[in-house]
Amino acid sequence: MTSHTLHPQRLDGDILTPQGWRRGCAHLSQGRITAIDGPLVSEPEVRAARRALILPGFVDLHVHGGGGFDTMEGGPAIEHIARMHARHGTTSLLATTMTAPMGELRQAMAALAPTIAGPIRGAARVLGVHLEGPYINSGKLGAQPDFARAASVQEVLALHALAPIRLITLAPEMPGHLEMIEPLRAAGFVVQAGHSNGSYEDGVAALEHGATGFTHLFNAMSGLHHRSPGMAGAALAHARFAEIIPDLLHVHPGALRVALRAIPCLYCVTDSTAAAGMPDGEYRLGRHTVTKCLGGVRLADGTLAGSTLTMDQALRNLVGLGLEIEDASRRVSTYAAEFLGLHDRGHLSPGAMADVLVLNPELNIERVIVEGEEIDLAHAG
């Protein structure tokens, strides 16, 4: 349920803008931000004042599920997923696929199409699909089922015709994949390297061919060694953008700090599964059954299988590591939007989408507004 509030609104508090914090008012009308007024203030002043904090809505480019539902179920499932994540401040997301036989991928894409075509009332905006598989290395599946295959531009375009693909993960070391990156980019897709056992040189070559990011940095990729830097080393040495899962389980806080220092626009994703927002128990992740317990989600053999993370907790985790709220906000909103080329999301500026959060000083969500519509937090999810 939502309150349909596309008429003019005014939000008062400390507002995070691209220029810094402003103590004043944000004005919204017809789903857009029309004005932001008030003097600039410093973050120490914001923390001391303990006023309402007004931040851009979170942008999550890697969502497998939530609220007991999995994206591979299609249709109604993604509506439940988008509502659950909206309750935690996500205003835009990409529905992320699992590696599967092509028939299952086509079925899932066709079922996702209607929810991508138009807004879902009371939910985060589903901007398109992140095709995480099947163009990955079977030696670095992580929790993906073993249906990896060679990439084909024609195959991607056929899937794209069913539902709009915005982001593609592929393993650049697989035969023919480097040569695939440029035509995929030319066709309008954003490409990133991931689920890869490739070398440092493979990662550098992927960037040179037009890949612009890395999928869940450190996870399901060849690691950094001082004589064999691997895919992770290529990202740390050369990438401007990479996604990372900051649940403090997938990546040690020390490694997260390394990535924060090395990659200018490191941004956060949840890699959330159906278990997000749910009690401990068994859930679906594509073809897999996964178990949520002890704060994580795992396959029967103990392999981490996505997360239970929500983006509001990601923000709190970053601030807990010592980041300023302003820096943490960029990493859960702005950089992901920039990576995907979304110029009117991920920041609070006149003309931008009215994707707005109101948080209390403890960084807990109090209000969520998606494209000018306020989510009824009591009934969302």
From TrEMBL:
Q: What's in the keyword line of the UniProt record?
A: Carbohydrate metabolism, Hydrolase, Metal-binding
Which InterPro entries did the record assign?
Amidohydro-rel (IPR006680), GlcNAc_6-P_deAcase (IPR003764), Metal-dep_hydrolase_composite (IPR011059), Metal_Hydrolase (IPR032466)
The source's superkingdom equals Bacteria
Q: Tell me which positions the record assigns to the signal sequence.
A: none
EC number(s) per UniProt? 3.5.1.25
Please verify whether the record's keywords include Zinc.
no
Name a Pfam family for this protein.
Amidohydro_1
Hydrolase among keywords: yes
Q: Which GO terms describe its molecular function?
A: N-acetylglucosamine-6-phosphate deacetylase activity
Which residues are in the Amidohydrolase-related domain?
A: 54-373
Concerning its family, UniProt says: Belongs to the metallo-dependent hydrolases superfamily. NagA family.
Q: NCBIfam families under this entry? A: nagA
Name of the featured protein: N-acetylglucosamine-6-phosphate deacetylase
Source species, please?
Ideonella paludis
